[in-house]
Structure to design on (902 residues):
């Protein structure tokens, strides 16, 4: 592959060393890379990305958008080699509009960087997957996190995008208005398209005012279904929960070990409520009433920001804590999401299914959204383990689809869920493929993903 | 055009009488139909729609989806003739899931029919454009209404669609899960596509719990900018308004005449707040404080549902009331939307621009969203009036785009805003056209709209 044209443009920001190519060949999942990208480029501007993609388009070279490499379905694998575009140097917060509560960022800004930048504004950006992902990466997979139950996913935050199309052209989608009916919604078409339709280079986001009062707490239950039913009942009576996360006893054990905490090793909810000081107290009391009727053991609350931060830092470490249960293993993370009324049944059936398995599989989930993960710990080179994990996920997806749910709530299709996508969406996958073919006829953008 | 195959299938549900074709040749706007559809068909099921579109596809005949004919940009005009599919008999509420607060409806169900159906459930559907539009039609134009500031537009309510594609195939999009990252977001691609990509036949919607307490009120101001600034300040301090609508003195005069009411003929806000009884009272007091510093004259509140219903019925009659100011004229309705911080400037500049015009032009708007309408009353046969209205709108759109806004907040592009779409979106319109061509290569679905 003759990259001299790009080398002339990017100098030492185009890297072909094996170590850097290897670092960029995989994400945080169990998927084993079968190939390396031919080069990794570190652009700083949208125009530079456009130059790279124009070059790739002319020469029919695959292009792989890369954020922080924290995806969970092989999204950044260079299955046919090609050029990986790492957005880490596209890390500028371009504009913050305090009055309109929106901002514009480059794709490489991470969620923590953005919130640090906003620290003194009274505003914040709520979407928080476990990893400190880049905003561009979060857009590409349709990410969400613990705040979704109140604030929505990344899809509800993005009001506009700049996208470098597969021919190198730069387009703008959306506007700064709160709503628009101006033509097709290209913003939402690009969100969740996993880099297969273009490279998201800039993002306009809604921001939110920091709540007047925040309380968070840890509730442990003697029974798993008690914890889940508490969530369902609280949501159905309209309690305005901001975060509500389930961790089973095994996941709590992992966090205790990894973070040196001493939570009771029982099915546990981490919850948070935002509002006025009086309102928050009222909601907590209502929540406690519901929990008490559902096998509650322990209930510890705090309104101290330091305590609260510690709690969520523990929650966000769930994947790394789980991995520490079995050093050397990788995670095969399932991601189904079901209507909330089916959640207890789905979790209990899944727990039962796991009984006959030898795979270590802590459960953690955004139960307020009906979304939970099994972190199946396995050796990717061990075919039996991989097959067993796949079988568990196949049965889990079948269960979720029967309940009107989806095979992926927030991680995306990537390499790992193509068959599940077809099972879930049927012939509408053909419509997706028609769009892909129209916009990227030579299939240069992140080939091998979704389809 | 030989329609015998369809006549055999639909019998007297396929109509070719001139009166019915003429009724279906136009919407509620000033756009003069230059053509009639060749036939109007009244299917009852998705399969029947699929049969019609398959037939049209084979014979290269235009297909025009038709809801209640209440669009405002010529969306249902049969510019090249063809078959208009009227969804009025697709009026079943298929399913209501109380526990998950969602439902599934056929496209022809109107917003009022759905809310009547839900009357005893404690749930409601919040999107309320002026007309009693069909849910399918609302999906097609990306409709919103007075509740958007709290509940969002139709785009935030739809969790899944059934769409009959231009080749007659029936696809399902979305799921009943609260979030999903399963492939491209075809749901949002279809929402706002104005019938140009397919016929939306069924819709899964989120529903909302009826609030514990509702108060609504009328506030009149001596100055227009006092009314607008009140809205902006209330939103910026985070007052949880559910509805906040502006009507200028002329629009109030029209409503007084049309609905026999006696509101003070001054710039006026209609507002509504939802919450707990105590919370609502607290918010009203805060709102009044802000209004008093912004030229408030009068402030009348009610928590009586009958009074509240009367208020919103007056608001929803705005277009018809305006039309009654100049009998025989039609409305050319503008629809820009800007970031809230630019709203006062945009409205004041627009008012100033109108001073030199002879066209009667009441102002009404969803100011909480940054969206307002001029209802320009004109005789569509009077070229001077039409040109003057177009010039006013051109200048208004230019003003809005400079402020980071959009040419259409909720009405769509249709026939009337194609040039504005290009001005706003630039080459991203080419990307939209690529998608249109890929999915509807023979351009049979609602030709002449958007592009």
């Amino acid at each position: 592959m003759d990259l001299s044209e790009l080398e002339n443009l990017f100098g030492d920001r185009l890297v072909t060393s094996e170590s850097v190519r290897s670092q960029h060949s995989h994400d945080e999942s169990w998927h084993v890379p079968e190939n390396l990208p031919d080069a990794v480029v570190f652009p700083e501007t949208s125009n530079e990305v456009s130059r790279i993609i124009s070059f790739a388009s002319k020469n029919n070279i695959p292009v792989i958008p890369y954020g922080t490499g924290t995806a969970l379905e092989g999204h950044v694998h260079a299955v046919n080699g090609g050029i990986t575009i790492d957005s880490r140097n596209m890390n500028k917060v371009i504009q913050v509009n305090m009055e309109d509560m929106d901002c514009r960022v480059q794709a490489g800004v991470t969620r923590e960087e953005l919130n640090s930048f906003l620290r003194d504004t009274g505003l914040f950006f709520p979407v928080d997957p476990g990893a400190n992902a880049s905003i561009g990466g979060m857009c590409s997979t349709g990410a969400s996190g613990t705040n979704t139950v109140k604030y929505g996913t990344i899809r509800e935050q993005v009001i506009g995008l700049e996208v470098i199309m597969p021919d190198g052209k730069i387009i703008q989608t959306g506007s700064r208005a709160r709503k628009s009916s101006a033509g097709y919604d290209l913003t939402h078409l690009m969100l969740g398209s996993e880099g297969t339709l273009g490279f998201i280079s800039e993002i306009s986001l809604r921001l939110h005012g920091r709540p007047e009062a925040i309380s968070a707490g840890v509730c442990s239950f003697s029974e798993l279904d008690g914890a889940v039913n508490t969530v369902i009942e609280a949501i159905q009576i309209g309690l305005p929960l901001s975060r509500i996360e389930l961790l089973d006893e095994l996941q709590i054990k992992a966090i205790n070990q990894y973070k040196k905490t001493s939570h009771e090793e029982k099915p546990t909810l981490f919850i948070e409520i935002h509002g006025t000081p009086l309102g928050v107290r009222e909601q907590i009391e209502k929540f406690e009433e519901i929990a008490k009727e559902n096998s509650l053991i322990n209930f510890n609350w705090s309104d101290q920001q330091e305590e609260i931060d510690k709690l969520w830092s523990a929650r966000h470490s769930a994947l790394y804590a789980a991995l520490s249960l079995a050093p050397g293993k990788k995670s095969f993370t399932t991601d189904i999401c079901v209507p909330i009324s089916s959640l207890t049944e789905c979790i209990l059936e899944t727990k039962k299914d796991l009984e006959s398995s030898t795979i270590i599989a802590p459960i953690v989930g955004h139960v307020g959204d009906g979304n939970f993960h099994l972190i199946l710990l396995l050796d990717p080179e061990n075919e039996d383990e991989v097959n067993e994990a796949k079988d568990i996920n196949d049965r889990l997806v079948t269960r979720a689809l029967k309940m009107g749910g989806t095979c992926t709530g927030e991680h995306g299709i990537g390499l790992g869920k193509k068959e599940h996508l077809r099972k879930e969406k049927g012939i509408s996958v053909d419509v997706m493929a028609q769009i892909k073919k129209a916009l990227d006829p030579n299939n240069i953008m992140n080939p091998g993903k979704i389809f």
